[in-house]
Specification:
Helix content: 40-55%
CATH class of the largest domain: Alpha Beta
Number of strands: 12
Number of helices: 15
Strand content: 5-15%
CATH topology of the largest domain: Rossmann fold
Structural class: alpha/beta
Largest sheet: 4 strands, parallel
CATH architecture of the largest domain: 3-Layer(aba) Sandwich
Order of helices and strands: HEHEHEHEHHEHEHEHEHEHEHEHEHH
Shape: globular
Strand order of the largest sheet: 2-1-3-4
Bound molecules: 1,3-dihydroxyacetonephosphate, iron/sulfur cluster
Radius of gyration: 19 Å
CATH superfamily of the largest domain: NadA-like
Amino acid sequence: MDYVKEIERLKKEKNAVIMGHYYQTGDIQDIADYVGDSLALAQQAAKTYADIIVLCGVHFMGETAKVLCPDKKVLVPDMAAGCSLADSCPANQFEAFVKAHPGYTVISYVNTTAAVKALTDVVVTSSNAKQIVESFPKDEKIIFGPDRNLGNYINSVTGRNMLLWDGACHVHEQFSVEKIIELKKQYPDALVLAHPECKKTVLTVADHVGSTAALLKFAVKSDKKEFIVATESGILHEMQKQAPDKVFIPAPPNDSTCACNDCNYMKLNTVEKVYKALRDEQPEILVDPEVAKEAVKPIKKMLEISAKLGL
Ligand code: 13P
Ligand code: SF4
């Protein structure tokens, strides 16, 4: 079976659109109508005219699309594609944390369940977190969750003292600063690019810190030729595509015997599963309407602020 051809046919027949995150395998990125970071995927979902969105990413991305487009069918190729970072912030525990700190504005990273977003004032992604935090007065009391590394990074670049939830992503926590320094000996001219979900030690040696889209843009524009990339390895596909003459080296994880810089959740999706999702119109993302009613507010707020800031 020619899955790519069948996907094209089903897409037209069902007025479907395929959106893919940069962490998907290259073959999925190549068949997607839109490839982007978490912010771009939310922006695309908010404005699509398609009846069906096949969100090639992880569960919380599907939820974000569903909350923004309650009348559309949102499919994820593999329902088991979760996120360790979202899992590190159960809604009931986050609610208790928020209740224990009255008077705080709650800012949540998009890597959260819809139930956590429903407890949130404004959602951010790694593309807009700094600007959105800075849009609040300097003395605003802020709770930031769930990523402690992103939260610490935003505190350091904005001079804020946000109260942080102690969550992390198992992929980004794996990168080893020692291994990166070792690799730099082999590639002395290489610039280090790091996602803000990485640990502080890794961010300290980075030449550029940013979301997947920001790292891609930086690498393409830079006049340097070699880059050590400390984020999930899927981004290398688009980097190599947009800058074929440059060299992209995946930053090594702590344990060189594992493929820990691959997100095992993101990589659950396959082209075959995309085809089956379109054919069967499942697995479908469903969000409790009461939760969705609250969760959509901070997501829309993020999109509004991003639009105003030209992000
Ligand atoms: P961005 O898409 O915002 O770069 O975030 C990366 C990520 O970890 C998605 O799960
Ligand atoms: Fe979640 Fe980390 Fe995978 Fe991103 S890379 S989806 S934060 S587990």
